[in-house]
Amino acid sequence: MPSCATIINIIEKLAPKNLAFDWDNTGIQIGNYNKEVKKILIALSVTEDVVEYAYEKDFDMVVAHHPLIFKPLKNVRKDQLLGRIIYKAIEKDITIYSAHTNLDVAEEGVNEILAHLLGLERIEILKETSTEPLKKIVVFVPEGYEDKIVEAMGNAGAGFVGKYSNCSFKVKGEGTFKPEEGANPFIGKKGKLEKVKEYRIETIAPENKVKGVINAVLKVHPYEEVAYDVYPVDNEGKKYGIGRIGFLKQEMSLEEFACLVKDKLDLSTIRVVGELNKKVKKIAVCGGAGSDLIGTAIFKNADAFVTGDVKYHDALDAFMHGIALIDAGHSATEKIVLNRIKEYIEKSLDDINQEAYVEVYMEKELFKYL
Ligand SMILES: [Zn+2]
């Protein structure tokens, strides 16, 4: 049976925690990493209804997009809403975990899904937020083991340069060592200086993969003590960011595009700012509250920007700049990720021969349009 830690590892492979914004509070909110998990509930927000449901139906873990705890708590009071939710979760030992802005930014996250769902092509990041730091890894390997080591490093995530994998470089040289008392050398005798033909193999890896790469090397390297170095480099790794921008396959009117958004997001109403007969092709998107990115969408010459939570003055600003705005609602532009998380967790558990019951809690539409 998987533990909370297993589930969290799976989620953080999809949405690495270091992608979250500084002001955010992603990660475990309540609970513990060691708890065994039979049932997982996926939700957009941790409402009282969600925790009530998890409580009644014996869920062990709630995985939500929005953090339950956002500002530091001064108290946990049972007579207040947040305190009540926390009490309820603790009472039944329900772990509550959030993947928020890291899931927005992730390569397969909210914004990427939204862009694909609307049929965009040549999708790029709307606004860059971080660049993956890289490290150079150097390992010294005896002759005959070089390919094994390169492959192990590649499988652990090292050696990716653009669209190429297993990138490495090796030079031949001579290594020296003298096995001391207590050593169990692969080559050589105790107390005698050995000279061995070795390769210096170097490659590059994202910082968060270095540990895994070194562990993979240690597993296949024949030496008792493996010599390796990890260097900082100034090369820039993969770029991450919020929102996406891309092109529709065919130009269409704003009205046609708004109907497409409505259809894809399964909405009965939608708010549109702009001339309905205006032609649109280059589209920017940001799930949830994305008004902060209107300026970036204008700068990048988008014809229309799809987001949620648009305020009057932001809409007016967009209108005056001539960019069309589609406010499809905060939850409608984000809940598209929930089923993906469910499928992703199920598949990832299957890959490691484990299983858990995973269910999506679809909250009722908050706003009613009369
Ligand atoms: Zn949101």
From TrEMBL:
GO MF term (any one)? hydrolase activity
SUPFAM superfamilies in the record, alphabetically? NIF3 (NGG1p interacting factor 3)-like
Superkingdom of this entry's organism?
A: Bacteria
Q: Which residues form a coiled coil?
A: none
Its keywords, alphabetically, are: Hydrolase, Metal-binding
For the keyword Iron, the answer is no
Q: Name one GO cellular component term.
A: cytoplasm
Residues that coordinate or bind a divalent metal cation: H65, H66, D104, H330, E334
The similarity comment for this entry is: Belongs to the GTP cyclohydrolase I type 2/NIF3 family.
In Swiss-Prot or TrEMBL terms, this protein is called GTP cyclohydrolase 1 type 2 homolog
The organism named in the record is: Thermovenabulum gondwanense
Q: What is the lineage of its organism?
A: Bacteria, Bacillati, Bacillota, Clostridia, Thermosediminibacterales
